[in-house]
What we know:
Elements: H1 34-37, H2 50-53, H3 57-72
Amino acid sequence: MDKTKRPLRKSKRSFRRRLPPPIGSGDRIDYRNMSLISRFISEQGKILSRRVNRLTLKQQRLITIAIKQARILSSLPFLNNEKQFERPDSIHRTTGTSIRNK
């Protein structure tokens, strides 16, 4: 029985860069810490997901609770929808409604 030598496999290295954690050990997750909370909210005012934030489950829960408390206490808006109500003049809804001229 002839045993052939197999080529040795090199260990695969990860291409992901090690990024610093988004929350430092000294940062306190609290509804009053607006500089920390604002990093985890999108432009529309939505809470970003754990995958986007790169947080642990416990940190994400604490951030979510802090954001909700800040919203209830009116420190943060529930929505940031300034551009939602802007509609171009070229689009008119005519389905099911009639346009009256005065």
